[in-house]
Amino acid sequence: MKRIPIILCLILALACTRKTEVPAILFGGEMHNSNASTPESIDASMDIAKALGFNAVLAPVSWELLEPVEGQFDFSLVDHLLKAAEKRDLYLGLLWFGTWKNGESSYPPLWVKSDTGTYFRALDADGNKTTAISPFCETARNADARAFAALMAHIKKADRQRRILCVQVENECGVFLERDFSPQANAAYKGEDPQRFMAAAYAAYINAVAAAGKAVYDIPMFANAWLAPADKPYGKYPNGGPRVNVLDVWKEKAPHLDWLSPDIYGSALKEMCAAYSQGQTLFIPETNCQAGRFWYALGEAGAKAVFGFGYEEFYDDPYFTSECRVISEMMPLISEGQPMRGFVRIDKQDAPDAVDTLSLGNHTFYVHCIEGEKNAHGIIVQTAEDEFTVAGVGAWIDFGPRTKIAFCEEVRDGKVSQVLNGDETGHHNMLYLRGRLFQQDYTSPDGTLVPAPMYGLSYQRRFRASAQERFKVSGIYRIKLYNQ
């Protein structure tokens, strides 16, 4: 199992062939499952990604559309994905929807799905067929591997700008059972823990598919996991995927995968980031489209990539779209590799007035999340010995009794919009992440247009309900600290 940062290896290996510089950190979205099925839906999704400020998109390639007739391949959609990405200066990760997607066999071609004798299914304890092909079916594995190798051979030739950075092999594999009870599975079962037994079977199958692809085009490949608590009842999640408690099995049985990824939803963000960053690249292909999760993963957990699933449906969500633009503004700084810390308040898990103590350089940041704020999240990037760029909203930061703010500049689109002092900094004692307000001009009763101010929230107002209820997203602040 490779353990060097994979994105860095990719940059070094392919730099001479690229026309544009590959971002060191990928920030983007994963397309909805069917949005890569026609040129029209590809273009529409790519336009949204570009408007949000993403630098990369994860897009499915389904076996049923790639090989509708056995041995006959149609790469037209793959070619359109490449052209669409090149046109918008976006990078791609491909999601191979082959034998399995979300624990089901929905995406194999009809000639596979309809032949349940040759491509046999996993069986339950009573011998009933499931809708998932068994991981013990060598015929299915070999057919999948041939199709995947054909895909990799094609993109090696067609992707002249090297827009495709990595490939996910299958999607959230597993079976919604304690284990597979097909005759082939029964013959292999030796009474071990069912989770480890199924993990070994799926890992070996996917490793064979990945090996076939890498034999023709060796770019980073990974598998992803539908996460669930280890003690959650069988049947509520696909058993056999690279979940936390079987990562060791996957690392042993799937050496052709470069890392294993978590699909992180719900409240387990911090714990899963920690678990999947141990000894490998933290690459998050799916998470909620909530900006705080992005800020935390990039700033605190050291993720090399984070993608919001189904970003298209959030095209008109004012919080998400506005926050994405702020993250896009910060990406050049984040990608330069300076020391960073991040924070987020997770609903129903963290205290509403939580305080995080974050050390960076010679300074300590006491981050106070404001109770009542809808969002509380942010990132701190060290740019010099006593200088930092902070982005965030819904919190305020102090630095201990002896540390003061020498200067504070609010930045928008790379320009200083205001120099903050006095009430805005608690007289050099704190940084209020008041965020960006989106205010409208006012027309007075006599018809006079009064332009909206750039801002209107000083630190004394941070606890007022009227301040907390207003619509605002992360602001960006440059500060210099000194000790007195």
Topology of this protein?
Blueprint: H1 6-14, E1 26-30, H2 39-52, E2 56-62, H3 63-66, H4 76-88, E3 91-101, H5 110-113, E4 121-123, E5 129-133, H6 138-158, E6 164-171, H7 183-188, H8 194-216, E7 221-226, H9 247-253, E8 259-264, H10 269-276, E9 283-287, H11 291-299, E10 305-309, H12 318-334, E11 340-344, E12 355-360, E13 363-369, E14 377-384, E15 387-393, E16 395-398, E17 403-412, E18 415-420, E19 430-433, E20 436-437, E21 442-443, E22 449-450, H13 465-468, E23 472-473, E24 475-483
Parallel strand pairs: 1-2, 1-10, 2-3, 3-6, 6-7, 7-8, 8-9, 9-10
Antiparallel strand pairs: 4-5, 11-14, 12-13, 13-16, 14-15, 15-24, 16-19, 17-18, 17-24, 20-23, 21-22
Helix pairs in contact: 2-4, 6-8, 8-9, 11-12
Contiguous helical run count: 13
Give the fraction of residues assigned to helices: 25-40%
Distance between the termini: 50 Å
Integer tally of domains:
2
Rg, alpha carbons: 25 Å
CATH topology of the largest domain: TIM Barrel
Strand order of the largest sheet: 1-2-3-6-7-8-9-10
Describe the biggest sheet?
8 strands, parallel, barrel
Total number of beta strands? 24
Strand content: 25-35%
| Shape call | elongated
CATH superfamily of the largest domain: Glycosidases
Q: What's the mean pLDDT score?
A: 93
So what's the CATH class of the largest domain? Alpha Beta
